[in-house]
Amino acid sequence: MIDAPRPAAETLRGATRTPVQASVAAVAPAESPHRAAAPLGTSPEERSTQRSPAHLVEWFETQAARTPDAIALACEDETVCFAALNARANRLAWALIAQGVAPEERVAIVHPPGIEMIVAMLAALKAGAAYVPLDPAAPRARLGQLLEDAAPKRVLAAEAYRDRLPQAARRLCLAESDVEPHSTLPDFNPSPPLAPHHPAYLIYTSGSTGAPKAVVASHEGVCHALRARSLLYPEAFEAFCLTAPITFDISVAQIFGTLVRGATLVIVRSLEDLQSLPGHWRERITQLMLPASTYANLLGAEPPSLTGLALRRVIVGGDALSSALVRLHRKALPGVELVNEYGPTEATIFSTAARIVGDEAMPDVATSEEATPGEVPDEQTPPIGTPIAGARAWVLDDKLQPCAAGIVGELYLAGRSIARGYWRRPGLTASRFIASPFEPGERLYRTGDRAAWRDGQLSFHGRVDDQLKIRGVRVEPGEVEAALAS
Fold first, then answer.
1. Entry pTM
2. Where are the alpha helices (DSSP H) in 13-114?
């Protein structure tokens, strides 16, 4: 259960202050009509010279010092510059530190989309904690279940949502409004003993046993993933739109991938708000990143949601990209680049990527007798591409032997972005994060996804189990069954 010390706001009043590696060479008798523009990013030699900051906080603070007057956040009619955002997050972070928050602790975030939500996330990180994003609109019972499992040291919750929390969690609540009146709190950067291996966030995903499970991502993993993004997409940009809820790990790329590069994060309350963005922001948003199914809905919306955006690139991920959506994209936004990213939460945002060219279905791919049982879908999806910088991918059979090119097996991932494991689930962690038979001391993450190598790229061929994706969010039938039976 959650401990219930003195209410946080009450206590606060007394405070004064590599190279890309594949396991088997691809055999390419014919070029796939869906192909990746290779290479994505820079050469292996150039990639090896890139070094990530020690942790996410250092990266953000460095950028805030470099461009203090630039606009960091925009939401409706409000904007916040980097210096003000850093100061606001610092004051809240010092309040958390006064409450005993430190590295390896957790701080839950219960906020609707908005500037206060980003301040809360940064404050948790600056205090050294991992943030735990929770959907404020989730059923009360689920909020209570997740809070009990996460056991946060504090809960940063918007006032309007506090009465939806269990009584014990309410006593842990703190908000920026509790901090701002206390002028004695400093606004300079805290310096907790934060290390690369410390957790940056816990994100809950659906669990096959009937209970949700939290993936623990480290600062090192997040920084590496963001560095890989900057290599894939090296051009400067002015603004990026936050379209994902913070309970979905795409949001990590959208939020921090924007802030650490000195651009403006434009926050919309819902995707419908894209239509009502002020013109000066619509002209500056040149990229969108969202689940493939959500993108399909936007393309079919009336009136069109994307009209007036100066798009040069659309990045999809979270669920499978279909050939039909590729054709729809080409028709609606000719000349706009389409990138298909793949990566489970356990691999920190993404692991592979493909720039999609062409709009025909992929040729049939054989199924190995030793591959995980299941039929190959009749309509093949576009490729999920090649591993990002520092990531490695293997397609293996049930004996952990590499499958030949064109043969479907299970996809395993490795590299610096692999998560620490599952919170309080050592058995599950051991079964999904296994010792690599190829690299001593390295872990492989068993994705549960079926894949094949073709033309030097990976293609996706469904799941080895009955897990579903709904708008990019995992749904385990076991959790649904458990909820119905309760």
1. 0.84
2. 44-48, 56-66, 82-98
